[in-house]
Design goal:
The chain is an alpha/beta fold. The protein has helices spanning 10-24, 30-35, 55-64, 96-129, 147-156, 174-180, 183-194, 207-216, 228-242, 260-263; strands at 39-46, 50-51, 68-71, 80-81, 87-95, 135-138, 170-172, 200-204, 220-224, 248-252, 270-273, 284-287.
Length: 293
């Protein structure tokens, strides 16, 4: 796996963390006034099973607060947390006021990111066990303000991020098509502004829609809300009909962990689902050790 930390642009990460900190303490930090600026060391523990993900966000919170984070050797994004618990992962040293200021923000990011990585890993494993060779992708149904964390979690769990935002790829859904008059018109308009370097995807509710999208020059056709048997027939029919034309078939809608294996059918290149929604968090804590009496 590539070094995921290298994906995150430092100034953008700092700006994101500053927004989180400002949201959490918009005026007075009353608890901080109680504990003061004495230097303490807190230990980060993992307390439940899962995939570790989100170290850069945890790190960035305490970097912004001028605290020192020392990670243990066996604490890399993508690592499996199996116990025995609790597992010490890092030491955070700095003014106690600042440790407690960043504690909940840093833990939230780590728990959420790790939870998504864990669910992604489970879904990818289900798909691989069927022998299917395609890609599992997360949709754009992310939490506002937390997208970077959640998309990072997908990658840490070996899933695909799909499009990151509205600028990453053109996705023409039913409302775009209705507003444009037809699939062909929507694709034509999209190509004039997106150019050659941006892919165009069209949401299709029938094989006929998909054929129109391919003929109009779509790069990806999404077969939306097909049952598994109908999906396999549609995908294979499309590939035969298209001849040598190159395009990607994505399927979405109605997929869940329970039904995923049924959708891993020949002809389908990508299965996308809302991995982020409902993903359980992995449990972490940050503890300052009690002093001996």
């Amino acid at each position: 796996m590539a070094q995921l930390e290298g994906l995150l642009e430092p100034t953008a990460l700092s700006e994101l963390v500053r927004r989180w900190l400002k949201e959490d303490v918009p005026s007075f930090d009353f608890g901080g006034a109680v504990v003061g600026d004495g230097i303490e060391t807190a230990i980060l523990y993992a307390k439940s099973k899962g995939i570790l993900a989100g170290k850069p966000f945890f790190q960035a919170v305490f970097d912004e607060l001028n605290c020192d984070v020392q990670w243990h050797d066996l604490a890399s994004d993508g690592d499996v947390l199996e116990g025995p618990f609790p597992i010490p992962l890092a030491d955070v040293k700095g003014p106690v006021r600042k440790i407690l200021f960043g504690e909940r923000l840093a833990l939230n990011a780590l728990a959420r990111c790790s939870g998504i990585a864990t669910r992604s890993s489970e879904l990818v494993k289900i798909a691989k066990q069927t022998g299917w060779k395609g890609i599992i992708a997360g949709t754009r149904k992310t939490t506002p303000g937390f997208r970077l964390v959640e998309k990072y979690g997908l990658l840490a769990g070996n899933a695909d991020t799909h499009r990151m935002d509205l600028s990453s790829m053109v996705m023409l859904k039913d409302n775009h098509i209705v507003s444009s008059g037809s699939i062909s018109k929507a694709v034509e308009k999209a190509r004039t502004v997106a150019g050659f370097s941006v892919k165009i995807e069209v949401e299709c509710s029938s094989v006929e829609d998909a054929m129109e999208a391919v003929e109009a020059g779509a790069d990806v056709v999404m077969l939306d809300n097909f049952e598994p048997e109908a999906l396999q027939v549609a995908a294979q029919d499309l590939k035969r009909w298209a001849g040598g034309r190159s395009f990607i078939i994505e399927a979405s809608g109605g997929l869940s962990e329970a039904s995923l294996a049924d959708y891993c059918v020949p002809g389908v290149d990508i299965l996308s689902l809302s991995i982020m929604q409902g993903a359980p968090a992995v449990d972490f804590s940050l503890k300052i050790p009690r002093k001996s009496a």
